[in-house]
Description:
Elements: E1 4-6, E2 10-14, E3 16-23, E4 27-32, E5 35-39, E6 42-50, E7 56-65, E8 70-83, E9 101-115, E10 120-133, E11 146-158, E12 172-182, E13 190-202, E14 208-219, E15 233-234, E16 248-249, E17 252-263, E18 268-280, E19 292-301, E20 308-315, E21 318-327
Antiparallel strand pairs: 1-2, 2-5, 3-4, 3-21, 5-6, 6-7, 7-8, 8-9, 9-10, 10-11, 11-12, 12-13, 13-14, 14-17, 15-16, 17-18, 18-19, 19-20, 20-21
Amino acid sequence: MKGLMIGEETRILPYGSVDGEYHPYIGLKLEHAAFGLQQDRVFHHFKIENRRDYSWKFRYLANSISSETVKYSFLFKIKSDRDTYYYGVGLGTDKAARTFASYESVFLGGEIEKAVSENAVLRMSSGFWSFQSGLVDGLEFERAADARYFSSRFTLSDSKLINYWKPAIDNYWSAYVETGLPINTTVASYVRFNVESMTRFPVYKKTRLGIATRLEFLLTPNREMLPYFALPEIGSESGLRGYSRERFRDFAILAVSLEYSFPITKRIDGFLLTDLAQTAARPSKLFHEDFYQSFGMGLRLKKGDNPISVGIATCSEGLKLFSSVALGKAW
């Protein structure tokens, strides 16, 4: 995308997405991704997201390419949300057990990215993040409602980013280890492990089957002194499309997504989806609980790396419509 030139060295690059989602318990939600500026070899990315369910995010990312294989990044992001679907570990998953919670988080940090092969990159990132929650006294995680951490993450991944339901499932993989060291003494340290993969292969003639898997778990010496915002989450944006976006949080999560796609016209594909996910208080407890299930179907207009998708998904909590329209290069 050529963009709009301002002067001799500055170029405005419009890109991002507008995603719509309708859920019976929440209503219509919209997400807006913004634009970028290119100045010589430095790229500035600005992203603003706003949703009807009282969530908003702002993100600024600056990338500087020093060579063909090394890239430096600076990242600042802030998020304010009202987690209507917060349950708390041990509170159960019935709708009657819901506990309302609001929270804010701020992150400031940087990253070094180095290509280690033609299709793999190593990312080393560190930064400071703070978290404040509006949980009331007596609820789980209330003692960790005000947290500040220094975190570091080491990631080995495909050169492309994993994104579950905006593009079609493709061949991606990623693995990282993250450590969080508390700055204030009222919260506990943690170590997070995450492995994700996607693959897509032909089945019959022009039909394809896509499989996406994710395993994530978090270890900490004091489970009661950890902010719940740090727990792995699973929902519509991370592999469980029939539920709300942050429907479940726990110390361990296993998710599997299946997508069978078939051509309808030259540029339009239909797809059938099945998403399965399991949460547990410990990694050893996975496979000992029932899977949450989501089923659905949809249409996808093939448009380069940013297809337009519309679909419907159902689960035990009702029906959800979703759509995605992308513009330019995702980031």
